[in-house]
């Protein structure tokens, strides 16, 4: 760890990618995340660490370059924003189906369609429920500060390789564009060819030695019985992620009667809303999911009996609220789960979050 | 101490870089900071604004709808942000191009003739530093030597020879800021 710097979220992410020993970045520019590739090109890591940075001809090409390179057992990634990630959905499904590790960064903007370039969280469903076709899941991490744009890069790669599965950093235009104080990670060396073979040689296409069978990378299996077995294996892996990787931050939840549930930028807004509400004498806490898949439902289930209700605050029309309802349902205890959100690139104000709390959760009791 | 401010004006007036210098100076004082800009087509020739927060504690929302201080550099921004200053808060503006001056009676209002003064100093580029000086005079949240360090950090090395000129502009701003209204 070194000196404190003032940097944009997007630039920090690019810097963290170089420092974590990433082997390749393939991308296509789109606001509000273009600074990621700009920063990488400016830094020219190929002269320093040997990392490849390539601007592809489209998002479809970029994700398929990631697919191919991930098959060789290297640390590779792409980044885009909402419409670009939709274009990548097919490739992501193939990568998940071929069980390959990689990092995909989505700096969300308002949709649907080309929408706006302002911050949004409307790709929650796309990120945690699939997005592409078939029954697959990504590991999804949601940074809520510029510092976490640094910290989660290494974590995302670690999880991706642990589970041989695509991992996503799901953030938004606000965190991508804003500057905060950040302490960058130390440099880690890229894996040598020998290390790649040692770590990933059991599945990656690293060159076939006489000692083992060919490693075949494909998502295709025309025999349905075998394809079902593959699916069962994937599902078991996703259940293992749910059992082992739920991450969250609980702020002032100990004495709370009401809980805001929010991630990323809306979690920052809710922290302010919580301060305002506490000043008014309302016992409010904030549960901030860090992993969106696996959704941290254990803590929701733990809090449910102790609180009067949850308010999910999102920059969309109400997506994560369904996962909170599901978690509360599993407790077999009735608790109110309400939603407040803004759409189209609007960031809710702390004041309107407090109003929503009073109207939707507290008002009902009076 | 938490200072929540908006700086707003035309693109090209140095709005974003003034915010960056304040934020970097804040880091030099061991404070938490956030800098949140307007971005994209908004910035192409139109109005630019940046929200800067400097605080002793972890900063919650980087996006705000009311501010302790508004630094206003054109009429559109005055129309938009005068009403967003907290009661008892501070509004500081450059009167150049302002046809409808601020009217609120529940906030402190100051003006800095930054445009005029920068022309007199022979370098219109130091405009934003004159305004910054005016702000630091009425809201001394940062020490001048930390602002100097902030300048060093936020300016590329090839511009470091301009730091003395920038500091002079800051001092000039401190001298010429005028009180329009105290509460």
Order of strands, main sheet of chain B, comes to 2-3-1-4-5-6-7
Rg calc of chain B: 15 Å
CATH fold-level assignment of the largest domain in chain A: Rossmann fold
Number of helices of chain A: 14
Q: What is the fourth-level CATH superfamily of the largest domain in chain A?
A: Thiamin diphosphate (ThDP)-binding fold, Pyr/PP domains
**Could you name the CATH class of the largest domain in chain A?**
Alpha Beta
Structure class of chain B: alpha/beta
Named at the architecture level, the CATH assignment of chain B is 3-Layer(aba) Sandwich
Evaluate the radius of gyration of chain A: 21 Å
| Major beta sheet summary of chain A | 7 strands, mixed
Shape of chain A: globular
Strand content of chain B: 25-35%
Salient structural properties:
heterodimer; A: 366 residues; alpha/beta; Rossmann fold; seven-stranded mixed sheet; five-stranded mixed sheet; 14 helices; globular; B: 183 residues; Pyruvate-ferredoxin Oxidoreductase, domain 3; 36% helix; 26% strand
